[in-house]
């Protein structure tokens, strides 16, 4: 079983990929950038970008019947690793005590020149 997840509550894919794919046990959410799904705008402040990315992830997970609480792994792409602690402070507010496994890497450039992108794998409820 492989189901494509699509919601208008998160940004549409800006390339040839799905927002997420749901299998029997897991949901694989494509990398999300801080793109406002209603306006297409990108916030300037780093903290606002991180909040929007995580909220976009949350909306896709909810459309798939899951939640941030069921995320088991994330991969974080940062334009500037000097913002790692600031990122961690924001990220920690969303995932509670049992943090998902995670990788975080600095990259030279992200789509639309944003500061952060996150992809996630979550359990199905």
Automatic annotation (TrEMBL):
Pfam families xrefs: Ribonuc_L-PSP
Highest taxon of the lineage: Bacteria
Gene Ontology CC annotation, any one: cytosol
Xref: CDD domains: YjgF_YER057c_UK114_family
InterPro entries for this protein: RidA, RidA_CS, RutC-like_sf, YjgF/YER057c/UK114
GO molecular function: deaminase activity
Family the UniProt entry places it in: Belongs to the RutC family.
Protein name, UniProt field: Endoribonuclease L-PSP
Species, as recorded: Melghiribacillus thermohalophilus
Lineage of producing organism: Bacteria, Bacillati, Bacillota, Bacilli, Bacillales
